[in-house]
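One such shown below:
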Amino acid sequence: MWTRSLFSPKTEIPKSAFIGLSLCSVSLVLGLWCLLTYGGITPKDFLAAPHEVIEAAIKRIGNLSLFHHIGASLSVILSGFILASIFAVPIGILMGSFRAVQALVEPLTGFMRYIPVSALIPLLILWVGIGIEQKIMVIFLGTFFQQLILISDVSARVSKDLIDCAYTLGANRKQVALRILVPACMPGVMDNLRVTMGWAWTYLVVAELVAADTGLGYMILNAMRGLFTDVILLGVFTIGILGLITDFIFKVLRKKLLPWSADF
């Protein structure tokens, strides 16, 4: 019976069962939210009711302020993430494939990835100011060193048999790097970029903590000062939805751009 497969490791389940379980988890959280708010268990100042969040969304969609905040946050997130990826992908592949590069890069990377990004904000303000550059650098530093470690691990796990076979068939070092190593790394690289994009969204509120006048993080922090929990929840849900959209985009890009990825 299909019910047994629900508790069997590495076993596919019917699509209807998957969707049903997903809806159950969402309904459970929504039901608990309604119970706490409409049941009078929590005060309004601590947790807004669902209809209040919807009303806040309609108001801010109507005056376009929500889209203004989304646009500002997207520009910060994408700028910092793309900048980090441009450097992290090639360096990470080199770091995992060449011991000399690993010896040069790993000590600094291992040190920096344990430093909270929020601890660097005072220095970033001194070095780059309080404009959008500071916010982009927060996203950059929050993702770059994590990407390096993850991508280097992907590169290090590429089978040496693939490289040896290429040399046996007459490939030179450049051909091995560009036609064997990089294609073998790319599925894992895309997966790790998808993961670190999620981390980039978690740094958004930190990035917009100082001297911001727009953005979803700013909207949340500004609402916190007045205990407007409906606006806070609206900002949280918006970030979550945008995160799901970017996650879906990465999945589609992996399937379209890397047709061989099913083999890795």
